[in-house]
Amino acid sequence: MLSKLKELYDIEDALNATTILAITDTKGKIIYANAKFCEISKYSSEELIGKTHKIVNSGYHEPEFFKGLWQTISLGQTWRGEIQNKAKDGTIYWVDTYIIPFLNAQGQPYQYVSIRHDITERKLLEHKIQQQLVIDSITGLPNTYSLKTSIEKLIRTNEEMTLLFINVDDFKSFNESLGNFEADHILHSIGERLAEFVKDERSILAKTYGDEFALVVLGEAGSAQPVIQKIFKLFENPITYLDIDYYITISIGAVHYPTYATCYEELFQHAARALQLAKIKGKNTSIFFNESIIEDTNRRLELKNLLYEAIQQRRFTMVYQPQYNNRGELTSFESLVRWHDPIKGVISPGEFIPIAERTGLIIPLGYLLFELVLQEFHSLQQAVGMKVKVAFNLSLKQFFDSNLSTHLISLCEVYKVDPHDIILEITESVAATNIDNVIQIIAKLRLLGMEVALDDYGTGFSSLKYLKDFQINCIKIDQSFVKDLLIHPSNKAIINSTIQLAHELGFSVLAEGVETKDQYDYLKNKGCESFQGYFLGKPQPLSYYQQL
Q1: To the nearest 5 percent, what fractions of the chain are helix, strand and coil?
Q2: Are the C-beta atoms of 270 and 261 separated by less than 8 Å?
Q3: b/e per residue, 321-342, with b = 16+ CB within 10 A?
Q4: What CA–CA distances, in Å, run from 391 to 84, 186, 219, 542?
Q5: What is the DSSP string of 207-242?
Q6: What are phi and psi of 480, to 5 degrees?
Q7: CA–CA separation, 383 vs 236, rounded Å?
Q8: CA distance 237 to 465
Q9: How far apart are CA 456 and CA 419, in angstroms?
Q10: In the chain, fewer beta carbons within 10 Å around the N or the C end?
Q11: Can you list the alpha helix ranges (DSSP code H) found in 448-486?
Q12: DSSP-derived 3-state class of residue 339
């Protein structure tokens, strides 16, 4: 008998050491609380006895949660679940709980025994993992998964809203100049500024991918426009990091629900499309999604397929615009592409070249066009009766193609064209990308014997620090400056300074878009060496020059 009692005491000690035990009456009042219960709740047994478990209620669970619990145990059934409680000192803890009814002879509960185990550490770990799933690690804002959950909840309740995608313009430059770690601090500061702003707005802010944020503005479509204007104003002041000011511009794509979307996926896709158009239109702007964008998207997809087929079937032709020196002598032509589709008719380069750039088709297209120029090169010289050069435009992707020089020289050899008769034109946007690499590529092209011209000068990024290191032959003044040359003094100032700068660096200058004799005379008097424009000749196919 004594051994049995000892065994029971040992079991009780083991339970007290590992298990939270409590016994309540049918009204829920505690009539027994073991030491483990007192330890975790920070209440003494005297403070617990006679009270209900409301004394440790954390307020985390809805009333329906406990209502279901009581319904189960009142029927004499065991209940199991996880409960969040609050200790006397305010500490939150979690317990995995079994509540077992003790039944009388009539099968009715007369008391309840609760057996609980502390699972606080596991719940904290689960919470941490859950936070990692729904929170962006850089900014601390809700992530894409969290955004999707919030939007789908709003859709279920048919809430009107506008989804904004907010993208930091040229954030790549921060990564390249500061490194990813420091650039992430800039991104964190941008997130903080947006988070502080949305405190006063009916909106949901999230961090999606890379350098992109999302903002859900509740309400009708018009309610988003003032918010967008405030966001642009928000970034008129720089982001300061390590005592350095960084000026930020953003692009925004917006779409309204339910006007242009029926589900989260459509909303996300349309906002992304609007953002892409904002980028294409020059950045630092906003675009609202509408029907015309849907038509434009379909048109671009169609042109992409047609473009792929056109490259395979070589459906492009080249036209040549003459370039003259300041003595009125024909010296060269700029080659320009034309595309006439059998079904769609004439398709503008301004429409299909950007598509080729975005899809990667620009590289095979570029080499095809270069080959077409070389095929006609000797016939073009024969048609004009003199030795002339031909300029060819290199796209950004083609310029950085690792096989560029090999392809160009190989094609020159096939068509027996002297590389010295080729002028390769690159834009400022090309020249401003990975400048050290640009310098090396230009040097390699010059070693092949080809000339290199910097096209559209003044419209993009001009770094005088590196311009002096470019082994270029010529700077082309963009036609936008020439057009209003005689009207706007600022255009004159830009052209005059460009000519002077180019000459001091040892470059020649060619003016594009010369349409009048007055423009021609002014540019000639200022020392411009070469000219191109409708005043001197329009782009024409080879057959035109052969008929002269």
Answers
A1: 45, 25, 30
A2: yes
A3: bbbbbeeeeebbbbbbbebeee
A4: 75, 42, 54, 15
A5: E-STTEEEEEEESSGGGHHHHHHHHHHHTSSPEEET
A6: -65, -30
A7: 57
A8: 27
A9: 23
A10: N
A11: 464-467, 479-483
A12: strand
The contacts found for 480-485 with CB under 8 angstroms, 24 or more apart, are: 480/513, 482/511, 482/512, 482/513, 482/514, 482/515, 482/519, 482/523, 482/533, 483/513, 483/515, 485/519, 485/522, 485/523
**Hey, how many other C-beta atoms are within 10 angstroms of the C-beta on 8?**
10
Q: In angstroms, rounded to a whole number, what is the distance separating the alpha carbons of residues 486 and 526?
A: 13
Please write the tens of the pLDDT for every residue from 86-114: 999 999 999 999 999 999 988 899 999 99
Residue given tokens 């027994």 in the structure block = 32
Vertex 517: Cα angle to 513 and 519 (nearest 5): 50
CA-CA distance, 140 to 138, in Å (whole number)? Answer: 6
Q: Distance between CA 515 and CA 486 in Å, rounded?
A: 12
pLDDT at 1: 47
Q: Is the pTM value of this prediction over 0.85?
A: no
CA-closest candidate to residue 390, choices 405, 406, 373: 373
As separate numbers, helices (DSSP H) first and strands (DSSP E) second, the chain gives 22, 22
Query: What is the per-residue pLDDT for 71?
Result: 95
Residues shown for the chain: 548
Task: Report the half-sphere exposure of 199 (CA within 13 A, side-chain side).
Answer: 6
What residue ranges of the chain have pLDDT lower than 70? 1-17, 131-132, 200-201, 431-433, 458-465
The Cβ of residue 93 has, within 10 Å, a number of other Cβ atoms equal to 22
